[in-house]
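Technical annex B. To support the medicinal chemistry partners, we prepared a structural model of the target in complex with S-adenosyl-L-homocysteine, based solely on the information shown next.
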Amino acid sequence: MTRPVPAIVILGNGSLATARTIAKLYPGALIHGLAERVEGADRVYHEFGATLRELYQQDTPIIALCAAGIVIRTLAPLLLEKGAEPPVLAVAEDGSAVVPLLGGLGGVNVLAREIAAGLNVAPAITTSGELRFGTCLLNPPSGYALGDLELGKRFVSDLLAGETVRIEGAAPWLAQAQLPEDAQARLAVHVSPVERVPTANELLIYPRSVLVAVSGGITDLPNAVREALHQSRIAVQSVACLLAADTDMASPALREAALELGVPLRFTNAGAGVGELVSNAISQPVSVLGDDSIAIVVAEQPLDPLQIGRPRGRLAVIGLGPGAAELMVPAVKSELARANDVLGYETYVRMAGPFRDDQVLHCTDNREEMQRARHAFELAAQGRSVVVVSSGDPGVFAMAAAVLEALHESSDPAWHRVDLEILPGVSASLATAAQAGAPLGHDFCVISLSDNLKPWSIIEKRLDLAAQADLALAFYNPISRSRPWQLGQALDIVSRHREPQTPVVLGRDIGRPGQTLRVITLGQLTPDQVDMRTMVLIGSSTTCTFPRADGGEWVYTPRWYGTKPGC
Ligand code: SAH
């Protein structure tokens, strides 16, 4: 069963060598380096605190190469909140100390031992139970679930006070531990999928060896599952996953039930009944309990959900924002982290990286939109997690509409069952406007000047009407080598309705290296000042400018409408 890949966070070049040694221990782990301080990191961040807190909230294990105190202060505001508690470690820059700080139940000591072994030092383990017994009894390995944490803490403190313990059931990971075992002991570690009333002298550990296959259309599914398990005397904590027919893949009731029960959801080919679902998904010998609508499968070993059937495929169409990492929304970052496949125009895919070795990149030409959209559905229908990348916002002259068109045209039920989500981004017009002030502060019109996918006559008509309606204008795709004359004509049309002194903002490569922002007037604007990486914003009759203290100019369009002297 896979563990989440840790993030290695460093503040300076001095930590790079240690960070690289640690990164080798965790394939796919990325080194996050502070901008302008670290050269050669996999990911650049600008603010240490925000970055660390974001990783923490995403439940990403954190290995911070800096003073433990800095990490503690940074995460302190989050510690009282319930929610994620991933392992967090502070490692000395030079690799001489490895200090597990948080996430005892998330396996922080395991990480500390691994990293310390990789760096040839002793980990600073401070957990009494772990020191004494060589393992954290309250943190069984993946594939097993602890029954009750509070009872467990008491159990461990009884052991530390000198009591002995019996082990009932199969606990292979405890073979190496130094537990004070005694067949007559009052305390027992009990490992079994059978439902059992918790008591203070038993540490209940449930192997996740149970699969529950369900048919569609059951009312109140979570309770039906709980009831069926109870009837068979199987503990809910032992459930490794829910299994359903792929025809039920898009069922919201199933998704909610899995969420409520806290188990993954897997799918297999539909069959005559739930018994057939089980035989479609599992080859190892199992005993099947339950009835016609819910089958309960108890395996001898913990089950790895990843090996059972397939997940519901996911397709996310994401917007990267204009380019700068800080302008990318957190949901997009998480989506990129979970992706198996990334599709898009090569420049944007590169902008979305770096990626792990296990992530497959499918770079294509910018014009092959529909083909790319269909390819994305083919991959997602196989159960993969697929991301289609656009710059800015995916719904603004970008991939979201192409993806929806491909789905609309398709009669393949597997495509329609894909978990499709569109995640927004900061569009170039908004990123440019923000840098200039608020030129789009009142009603505005967004228009692409490209006549590749629409007739020029319609563009002319829209320009004329929008200019006449006194909307501020944002031109996307203003010009290109194959479309050299269109911008000039567009400006002629706009100039029929706007004064030559109307403010114009030209933003080029906004949010990217070498960005430029210019504020000029409509009268000064000529097509040779613009290229395909430029955003053109043209003000309305109320758009004004005034000097900034730094020598530049602010541009804004007031919220009110009318004429005001001085603008
Ligand atoms: N989906 C994108 C737009 C794609 S159309 C978005 O929402 O931003 C491509 C056009 O967007 C380019 O021709 C240019 O006019 C504009 N553009 C995209 N990124 C830009 C950037 N970083 N700076 C300025 N203009 C940009």
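Notes passed to the chemistry partners:
The longest helix spans residues 369-381.
The first strand starts at residue 7 and ends at 10.
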